[in-house]
């Protein structure tokens, strides 16, 4: 049992427990949050010690996983038509132009695959009864703000805790042992991918921005009506507004997938994928990248 | 001819003399330093050889000072051609043709600029992007710069750009113009060239790192009073006309870039933008020619004097620039 995790647990119990109110606030009806961060009440040298030990621990864990002799991988199978491979979790860096050999200019997004590890294998029965699944995690993050159940999962895989954890449906001949690192070389230039990410949150937005309504004219006698939705339905016959009516509300911060994006270039030294076009999400956000299966109509590929 | 030629390597000073072979002064100098034989080795044409001989003949008879030298170098005069020349003193000396002015093109040394200049597209904008992305982009930019020489230029310099074009005859097209704007960051950096051709103003926006660009030549390197010369669209056409066959002017590798403090005269209003407003901060227009003092004062209504004190809008790039400049210079020299 690594000593680090128990230290964190101890720290949380002694110092920043959310459920115990300090004495002068007992009896208050309003919810008082007393959460602190893990090193608020630690001394300087203890804080440093915690940071150093976490970093060392991560390095040790990643190094262990890289050695195939100590950690034998599962058996590799042949590719068949219709088999699905695992995807990756990447970080969106930014956009750059790219020129093809014939001189055409395309814009690409750079995705960096940072510390991607397979965390868990869910067999057919555990997952949904039809296909097996692999749980993959992205960027490394501190263990102090993760719950015990999550930490258990990471501990079983022998992998540092990750910021984003996603499941990929995978065919039986593409199963990978938990703990194997995944790199950008997983994909080759010329392949097509689907990228899923949480779109940028725009907050509470009106109907014109959220749904693209036309609004009303600026002049010609319009009284206080320029960006309103207008009518909300048919009239007396249904005598109701249908469910799902497009109305103002919170926009963004939902998972959106961009389908059929071509990979122009792969940098295997720094694990960077150059993916065609734009991608939902802000810079430095975590994305789920998987192979495109050409079943969806909203694709960039023309085939 | 063959008897005069020697097998030993000719020192570079001999090469210089070869262009000045008809000059009498040169004769004297090289007669002192080298034997006649070694100088003959660089001469190519037979007629030149004969001319040498004739010149030498004239020289010996005209100046007494060389008599001693002649005695010393007599063994070098043992070539048959020279003897023949000495023998033919009875014919008329040829009319003296002054030597052609030498144009010394030193192709062995490239003019390396001692002025350290960092192109503005290397400086990253102030964003919440990972600096690692700029590092990767810079690597690609340096790779391209190693293949194509992108010279130092500013808004106001005159450039000639040759671009590969599949539809043009000869597959290349060349455009000469004055650079009015440099924009973009990283690989997407652009510059706009403007010229007036057949009474028609033409502006072309080129991408610095596009592989279609074959050559960028700076015909005249200079700066203007502003960074953005978009107002030249509303200026009189004489300020944008650049001769397409202009010859490149010599650029000094050291010292400051010359600033052209030209104040441009504008066409009558309306202009494409209200250039008199303080947000554009244009120094290079002669406003007194187009606007009254009242109009200038009215334009000051749009002034935002608090902006210069706004600390959140400050972006100090000096340290970043130094770092990036040293990195770029290191990579380029590899």
From TrEMBL, chain A:
Question: Cellular location of this protein?
Answer: Mitochondrion
- Renumbered residue ranges of the record's region Disordered: 214-244
Q: Which GO terms describe its biological process?
A: translation
Stored InterPro entries: Ribosomal_uL3 (IPR000597), Ribosomal_uL3_bac/org-type (IPR019927), Transl_B-barrel_sf (IPR009000)
Any Gene Ontology CC annotation: mitochondrial large ribosomal subunit
Q: Does the keyword Glycosyltransferase apply?
A: no
Keyword set for this entry?
A: Mitochondrion, Ribonucleoprotein, Ribosomal protein, Transit peptide
Molecular function via GO:
structural constituent of ribosome
Superkingdom of this protein's organism: Eukaryota
The cross-references to Pfam families, in alphabetical order and at most eight, read: Ribosomal_L3
Q: Entry's NCBIfam families? A: L3_bact
Q: Entry's PANTHER family?
A: 50S RIBOSOMAL PROTEIN L3, LARGE RIBOSOMAL SUBUNIT PROTEIN UL3M
Q: Which family does it belong to?
A: Belongs to the universal ribosomal protein uL3 family.
Q: What is this protein called?
A: Large ribosomal subunit protein uL3m
Organism of provenance: Sparus aurata
Q: Which gene encodes it?
A: MRPL3
UniProtKB/TrEMBL annotation, chain B:
Gene Ontology cellular-component terms for this entry are: mitochondrial large ribosomal subunit
* Chief localization: mitochondrion
Subcellular location(s): the record lists:
Mitochondrion
Q: Which GO terms describe its molecular function?
A: structural constituent of ribosome
- Which InterPro entries does the record cross-reference, listed alphabetically? Ribosomal_bL19 (IPR001857), Ribosomal_bL19_sf (IPR038657), Translation_prot_SH3-like_sf (IPR008991)
List, alphabetically, the Gene3D superfamilies matched: 2.30.30.790
- Which keywords accompany this UniProt record? Mitochondrion, Ribonucleoprotein, Ribosomal protein, Transit peptide
- A Gene Ontology biological process annotation? translation
Return any one Pfam family short name.
Ribosomal_L19
UniProt superkingdom: Eukaryota
UniProt cross-references to SUPFAM superfamilies, sorted A to Z: Translation proteins SH3-like domain (SSF50104)
Q: Which PANTHER family match?
A: LARGE RIBOSOMAL SUBUNIT PROTEIN BL19M, RIBOSOMAL PROTEIN L19
Family that this chain belongs to = Belongs to the bacterial ribosomal protein bL19 family.
Question: What is the protein name stated in its UniProt record?
Answer: Large ribosomal subunit protein bL19m
Q: Per the UniProt entry, what species is this protein from, by scientific name? A: Sparus aurata
């Amino acid at each position: 049992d690594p000593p680090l995790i128990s230290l964190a647990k101890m720290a949380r119990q002694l110092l920043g427990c959310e459920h115990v109110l300090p004495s002068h606030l007992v009896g208050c009806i309003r919810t008082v949050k007393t959460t602190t961060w893990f090193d608020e009440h630690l001394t300087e040298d203890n804080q440093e010690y915690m940071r150093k030990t976490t970093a060392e621990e991560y390095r040790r864990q990643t190094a262990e996983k890289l050695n195939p002799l100590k950690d034998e991988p599962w058996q590799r199978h042949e590719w068949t038509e219709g088999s699905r491979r695992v995807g990756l979790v990447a970080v969106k860096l930014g956009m750059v132009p790219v020129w093809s050999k014939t001189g055409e200019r395309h814009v690409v997004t750079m995705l960096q695959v940072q510390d991607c590890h397979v965390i868990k294998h869910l067999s057919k029965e555990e997952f949904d009864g039809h296909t097996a699944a692999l749980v993959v995690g992205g960027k490394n993050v501190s263990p102090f703000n993760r719950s015990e159940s999550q930490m258990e999962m990471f501990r079983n895989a022998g992998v540092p805790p990750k910021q984003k954890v996603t499941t990929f449906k995978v065919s039986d001949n593409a199963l990978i042992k938990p703990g194997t690192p995944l790199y950008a070389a997983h994909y080759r230039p010329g392949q097509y991918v689907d990228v899923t990410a949480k779109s940028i949150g725009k907050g509470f937005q009106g109907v014109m921005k959220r749904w693209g309504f036309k609004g009303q004219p600026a002049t010609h006698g319009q009284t206080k009506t320029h960006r309103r939705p207008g009518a909300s339905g048919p009239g007396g016959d249904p005598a109701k507004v249908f469910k799902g009516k497009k109305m103002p509300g919170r926009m963004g911060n939902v998972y959106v997938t961009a389908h059929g994006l071509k990979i122009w270039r792969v940098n295997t030294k720094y694990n960077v994928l150059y993916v065609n076009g734009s991608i939902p999400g802000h810079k430095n956000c975590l994305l789920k990248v998987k192979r495109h299966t050409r079943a969806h109509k909203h694709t960039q590929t023309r085939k | 001819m063959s008897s005069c030629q020697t097998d030993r390597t000719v020192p570079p000073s001999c090469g210089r003399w070869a262009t000045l072979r008809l000059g009498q002064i040169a004769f004297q100098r090289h007669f002192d330093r080298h034997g006649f034989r070694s100088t003959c080795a660089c001469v190519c044409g037979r007629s030149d050889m004969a001319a040498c001989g004739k010149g030498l003949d004239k020289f010996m008879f005209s100046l007494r000072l060389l008599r001693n030298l002649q005695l010393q170098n007599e063994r070098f005069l043992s070539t048959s051609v020279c003897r023949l020349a000495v023998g033919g003193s009875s014919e008329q000396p040829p009319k003296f043709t002054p030597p052609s002015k030498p144009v010394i093109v030193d192709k062995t040394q490239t003019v390396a600029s001692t002025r350290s200049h960092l192109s503005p597209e290397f400086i990253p904008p102030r964003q919440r992007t990972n600096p690692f992305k700029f590092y990767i982009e810079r690597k690609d930019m340096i790779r391209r710069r190693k293949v194509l020489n992108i010279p130092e230029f500013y808004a106001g310099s005159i450039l000639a750009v040759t671009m590969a074009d599949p539809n043009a005859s000869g597959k290349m097209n060349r455009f000469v113009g004055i650079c009015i704007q440099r924009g973009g960051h990283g690989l997407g950096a652009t510059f706009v060239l403007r010229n007036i051709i057949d009474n028609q103003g033409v502006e072309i926006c080129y991408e610095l790192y596009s592989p279609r660009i074959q050559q960028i030549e700076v015909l005249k390197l200079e700066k203007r009073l502003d960074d953005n010369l978009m107002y030249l669209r509303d200026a009189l056409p004489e300020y944008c006309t650049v001769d397409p066959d202009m010859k490149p002017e010599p650029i000094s590798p050291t010292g400051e870039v010359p600033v052209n403090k030209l104040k441009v005269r504008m066409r009558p209003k309306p202009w494409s933008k209200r250039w008199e407003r303080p947000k554009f901060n244009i120094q290079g227009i002669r406003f007194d020619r187009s606007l009254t003092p009242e109009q200038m004062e009215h334009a000051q209504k749009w002034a935002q004097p608090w902006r210069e004190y706004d600390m959140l809008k400050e972006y100090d790039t000096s340290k970043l620039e130094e770092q990036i400049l040293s990195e770029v210079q290191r990579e380029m020299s590899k």
